[in-house]
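Run log // design_07
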């Protein structure tokens, strides 16, 4: 194949559409699951929904979805992805149930050789669309393997378990927990929530979008585009506050008012009040989480989990909670690319070895030493306010421009120069130093164990889009195969010659 895309979530589907629309038809999408959807296929827990407005969390080339709510739920988002794949006939280039096990750059052939569960594949260009929210982070607590009851991660929800009348313990207070607790508290006999760190939570204006309103927007030229633009600038307002920590105080004031109005219990309110700047961790939105925690059968435990004993979950403060069902709302191993340990670059080194615990890429997209490899939603591209789809589409513009440059120059491969990657990385880290991501006083998944922020983009989304709008060939070296010299005129095969006939019969 010319290009193989690994993963069929938002990134993989978008890549396949844009590549084919740009004239690159020899494309194949390999998806290890039985269907498309990525994180929206895997995460089916109660209350699962997007925390970015639906109109903004959708492709610009398929903006006409009639969303039922301002913030769409998991099933509706998955249906949107399936409809988009059908609309652009991606079934022609999609192979589900195929897991990529390893990949190696063949310098002589100038191609990626892939080892998969379906046998070997070969591609000139490899696009990794596996996403940062891929590998669940499981609860690491002594005794959990002997827990006397069902235990599962939010990304692997066990729908066979009935929570009605059960004593449920949820560990973690991140994005999934904020959605799950309100969704299950009406069924469970008790809900105990273990919170290691309090989170900033803003109200979520999740209003229904009536059918009549959707029809009106379809009839008014530019209506959906205007709504998308308005939501974009609102999100960018949050981004500005995260880049200027003093401005984040205004958002904190709003979050405190939200907490005070929803939670009357002074001690509970104190436990739910963070001691770091808003935006330091992923910003959460919910208009039902605080109300759920105020119910008499729901209890917050402001402590980490230290161990599990039989059917009891034990907190670091000595709290013991009898539990029938244990739910791990402990997030993902963000930054741990699934193929990093088995993807070998030009010098035989794996991507994991090249990164050495600190993922980095030029413009979050290409990695020095790994020719013709493109990462989607790679290191230092996202933030606490940006729609991942906006970032993704900017990268796809860069990707198609890069491939066009290869063709126009007769090049076989491109490889970002080490100096270009190092300079970009230095500027990113210097810019991050003054943002709330780095100065907010918290510990987040934005950082590696060595203390480097390898997740966040330190500037505006507009700047990111502008940087990725054009392919900057000067940052790359190119492999251009030598072309054979033309034969003298008298030595060229003539029509009807046996040599010419023989050549035309070759496969």
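design_07 sequence
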């Amino acid at each position: 194949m010319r290009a193989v895309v690994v993963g069929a979530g938002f990134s993989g589907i978008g890549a396949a559409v844009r590549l084919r629309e740009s004239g690159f038809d020899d494309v194949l999408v390999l998806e290890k699951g039985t269907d498309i959807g990525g994180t929206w296929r895997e995460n089916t827990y109660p209350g699962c929904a997007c925390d970015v407005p639906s109109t903004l969390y959708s492709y610009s080339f398929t903006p006409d979805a009639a969303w039922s709510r301002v913030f769409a739920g998991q099933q509706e988002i998955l249906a949107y992805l399936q409809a988009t794949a059908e609309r652009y006939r991606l079934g022609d280039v999609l192979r589900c149930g195929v897991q990529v096990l390893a990949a190696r750059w063949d310098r002589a052939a100038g191609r990626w050789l892939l080892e998969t569960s379906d046998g070997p594949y070969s591609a000139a260009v490899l696009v990794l669309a596996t996403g940062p929210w891929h590998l669940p982070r499981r609860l690491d607590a002594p005794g959990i393997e002997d827990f006397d009851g069902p235990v599962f991660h939010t990304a692997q929800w066990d729908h066979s378990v009935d929570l009605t009348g059960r004593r449920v313990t949820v560990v973690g207070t991140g994005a999934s927990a904020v959605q799950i607790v309100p969704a299950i508290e009406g069924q469970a006999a008790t809900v105990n929530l273990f919170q290691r760190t309090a989170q900033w939570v803003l109200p979520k204006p999740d209003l229904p979008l009536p059918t009549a309103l959707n029809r009106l927007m379809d009839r008014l030229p530019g209506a959906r585009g205007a709504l998308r633009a308005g939501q974009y600038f609102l999100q960018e307002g949050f981004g500005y506050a995260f880049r200027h920590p003093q401005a984040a105080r205004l958002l904190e004031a709003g979050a405190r008012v939200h907490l005070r109005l929803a939670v009357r219990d002074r001690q509970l309110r104190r436990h739910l009040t963070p001691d770091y700047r808003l935006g330091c961790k992923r910003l959460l939105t919910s208009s039902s989480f605080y109300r759920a925690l105020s119910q008499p059968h729901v209890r917050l435990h402001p402590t980490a989990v230290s161990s599990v004993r039989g059917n009891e979950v034990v907190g670091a403060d000595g709290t013991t909670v009898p539990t029938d069902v244990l739910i791990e709302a402990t997030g993902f191993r963000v930054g741990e690319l699934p193929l990093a340990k088995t993807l070998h670059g030009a010098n035989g080194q794996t991507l994991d070895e090249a990164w050495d615990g600190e993922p980095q890429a030029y413009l979050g997209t290409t990695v020095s030493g790994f020719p013709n490899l493109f990462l989607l939603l790679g290191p230092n591209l996202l933030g606490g306010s940006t729609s991942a789809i906006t970032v993704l589409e900017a990268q796809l513009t860069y990707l198609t421009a890069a491939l066009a440059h290869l063709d126009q120059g007769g090049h076989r491969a491109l490889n970002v120069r080490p100096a270009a990657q190092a300079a970009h990385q230095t500027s990113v880290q210097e810019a991050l130093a003054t943002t709330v991501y780095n100065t907010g006083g918290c510990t987040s998944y934005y950082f590696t164990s060595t203390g480097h922020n390898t997740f966040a983009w330190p500037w505006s989304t507009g700047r990111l889009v502008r940087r990725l709008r054009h392919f900057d060939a000067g940052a790359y070296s190119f492999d251009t195969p030598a072309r054979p010299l033309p034969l003298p005129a008298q030595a060229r095969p003539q029509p009807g010659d046996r040599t010419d006939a023989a050549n035309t019969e070759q496969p």
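The CA atoms of residues 30 and 95 lie 5 Å apart.
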